[in-house]
Every structure is written in C-alpha cells, then in structure tokens.
Amino acid sequence: MSEAARIRFVKYYVGATIVVASMAVIIAVQFDSSFDSSPKGLIRILAFSFLAFLTTAIESTSTVGVHGSVAFVSHLASIVVLGPVGGSLVAGSSMAVAQLWLKRPPLRVLFNVAQIVLSTATAGALYLAAGGHIKPPALLDQDLVAYGVLVVTYFTLNSGTVSGVVALNQGVGFGSTWRVQLLKAAGYDLVASVLGLLVAWMYLRFGFFSILAVTLPILAFRQAYRDNVDLKRANEELERRHRELLDYTVKQIEARDPYTSGHSRRVAEYARVLAVEAGLSAAEAEDVSTAGLLHDVGKVYHEFGALLQKEGRLTPDERELLQSHPIRSAELIATISKLRGTVELAVRHHHENYDGSGYPDGLKGEGIPIGSRIIMIADTLDAMTTDRPYRAALKLDRVVEEFRRYAGRQFDPRLAEIAVSSPAIRRLLGASASENVPSTRISPLRARPWIRLRARASETPVQ
C-alpha cells in the first residue's frame, strides 16, 4: 500500500472512530441517570479533569495509550464517581487540552479524544449494566465485579483502537500489533486498574483533596515505568550491536579460513531443525540455533590463526590449545547478558562426546547440555556433507551409517536417529533418501594433515 493510500485510510479510520465514539456517548446517556449538572457536579468534573490533564501532559509518549498512561487512573476513577457521562467528559476534555498543550497534529488530537471517549463511555455503560453503582457508599462484591467488566472493556477498546491506527499507519497486521501492545501494557494496566479503584475509594471516603495524596506516588510510578522502558531499550540496542559484532566476527573467521565458508550458518540451521524435532520450545530452539551460529566464534583470537592455517601435524601443545576454543567462544559469548547461561553452555560443551571422551570438561550422557549435543550432531553433519581438502562430501547412506555407528559414543543416540530420519534435514541437504548429498564446492585448498590425524586418533567422524 502506498503512503498516500495509508494516510487516506488513517483518515477514514479516525472519522469512523469519531462516529462510533459519538454513538457510545448517546448510549451512555441512556444508561446514566446519575449525571450531575449542578455547580457541585461540574466542580467534580473539573477536579478530575485537572488531575487527568496533569498526568497526561507530563507524559512524553508519542502515542498516548500504546504503552499505558497515568491518565487511565483518573479516567477509571471518574467513571465510578461521576458515571459514564461524567467520566467521558473528564477523559475527553483532559485529553483534548493535553494534546493541544503538547502541540499534537490535529488528526492525532481528534483520534486520541475520540478513542478515549469511546473507551470511557462504553466501559461506563457496561459497568452500570453489570450492576455497578455510581458513588457507592461502600464497594460491594457486585461493584467489584462490575469494575472488572469496566477495566476489561476500557483497556480492550483503548488498545484495540490505538493498535488499529498504528497498523494502518505502518502498514502492518492488526492482530500482531494488538497482541504486542496488550503484552507490553498488561502489567501497567493492572496497576492502573488498582490505583483507579483506590482513587475512587479515597474520593468517596475523604473528599477530593485526599486523592492528591496518591497523585505524587502515581507520577513516581509512571516515571519509574518510563525509566525502566528506556533502560530496557538501551540494553536491547547495546546487545543488538554486540550481537551484530559477533555475527561479523563469524564472517571474519570464515573469510580467514575459506574451507569453513558458510559452515556456522549451516550448523545454526541444522541445529534449529533438530531442536524443534527433539521437542524443544520455539525459544529454546532459537537459543540452540544462536549457539550453533556462534559455536566457533572464539577462533577469532590470534592464537588460533596459526593453527587454522598450519599445513603440518599439530604438536601436543597445539592440539591442547585448539581444544580450548570452545571455552574461549563461551567466554566471548558471555559478554552479552542475553546469551549467558543456555547459549553460553551450549557453546562451551559442543565438543563433549556422549561417552565422556570429549572436551573441555569430559561431560557424559545427559550431563551434557542438550544444546551442546544438538550442535555436536549439526557440526558433524555439515563436516561430512561438504567437500574437505582431504576428501569429497560423503553420500547420504554413508552419513547415516556413520551417525548410527557412533551413536552412544560420540552422539546422543536419540538425537542421532532424529538427524538421520528427519525429512527437514534431508531437504536442507538438498537430497532425498535415495540420492547422494550434493557437495558444497569450495576453492581448492592445501590438505591439512592435522585434521586427518584428529579423525584417525579419535576414531570418530571429522568435525
């Protein structure tokens, strides 16, 4: 959809929201016989409007309602104290004044006023329909149940209407946008609901000036919420940049050692499939895939450069140094807080053999993290199905034979069987059960005796 078309649909959407909000107010008037138009009633409306304006005006969110607003507390309280009509006047007038004071564009002002009036009027009418009382002398069970209906209606309409305009404006799906907004604001909305009931109770019990005592804590809560969101965003941005740096590091390693070109990305893809087929959750599979991508990232350190390029046999000291790369990889990964724990451990132990003969810690069987066991198989799978300087890629039947031969020794038997039986893995390899696995052709390189030596010495498939 073109930008001009999106703008046109946004305008239609705003117009429709205004119409529906007007109808909601008309319906609320029919339900609400408690509206007080006397000077005392108008003073109450002005008092709650001022509180709502104050809490709205101090906020700097670009779209009020998307991530929660302190003003919601005043809106909810005003419905219980003033009724649907009075609450709509409070919400609409305070929103209009605050939006104009914040110099929002006219279209945004109209939409924000309309959607908040729609939410307040509808929620208030349903509060009365559910048996709730206006200015109840005591909050009975019936009032609490009705207040629950009010809260659900208010936040559903508020988040839904705002998500609709966001989806139209950005050209994204409404359903996914709404789900994201509900999840982001769920905790805040719950607190706002409790505070709204508290404000209403304090007003009815002690008068208007008593609710000023809760205004400062409300504003402090909002500031703490904003600070937490800002800090979370800053951390996410920092970790995104750090992750990009690690991805770049993987590419640099593979550029330095062309025989592994694309290896880490293929291992990550195989690992993701194996994790899903092994019954891991989507989040766990994503962690395993990330670990597969970064499993050799520690080889970026200069001490490994000479080993990767060495043509002759490795000395015992060199072999010991090479076997430290899982540890160095895990240490590097641990510099990103979101990768500590599961991803870090999966990388550290991806060379542990199922029978305990691996490294660096000699873990055995189920004591090896499942992510590590998956990466061991994915890593070996890629090694066997790509051309190497010392041999061509193996045929599929030979790959299956090797995995079954070393199941219980090098590989987790259950995971090994999943790997050789998985149609998804075969599709990734580009082969059917009766075809040869196509090789990934790379430029000719000099043979590396230390690789062959490692395979023979351990009597396990080359990795």
Tell me what the structure shows.
The protein is mostly helical and 463 residues long. The protein has two domains: 3-232, Orthogonal Bundle (Arp2/3 complex 21 kDa subunit ARPC3); 257-458, Hypothetical protein af1432, CATH 1.10.3210.10. Helix content is 70%, strand content 0%. It is elongated, with a radius of gyration of 32 Å. Mean pLDDT is 80; it is low at 60-67 and 431-460.
Distance between the termini: 49 Å
Q: What CATH architecture of the largest domain would you give?
A: Orthogonal Bundle
Strands, count = 0
Please give the radius of gyration in angstroms: 32 Å
- Give the helix proportion (percent range): over 70%
Major sheet summary line = none
What CATH calls the topology of the largest domain is Arp2/3 complex 21 kDa subunit ARPC3
Spans with pLDDT under 50 lasting ≥5 residues? 60-67, 431-460
β-sheet strand percentage: under 5%
What is the number of helical segments per DSSP (H or I, 4+ residues)? 18
Shape: elongated
The secondary-structure element order is HHHHHHHHHHHHHHHHHH
Broad structural category: mainly alpha
Give the averaged pLDDT, no decimals.
80
Q: CATH first level of the largest domain: which class?
A: Mainly Alpha
Structural domain count: 2
Write the layout of secondary structure elements.
Layout: H1 3-31, H2 39-57, H3 71-101, H4 106-129, H5 141-170, H6 174-206, H7 208-256, H8 263-277, H9 282-294, H10 302-309, H11 316-322, H12 325-333, H13 342-348, H14 370-384, H15 396-406, H16 413-421, H17 423-429, H18 449-458
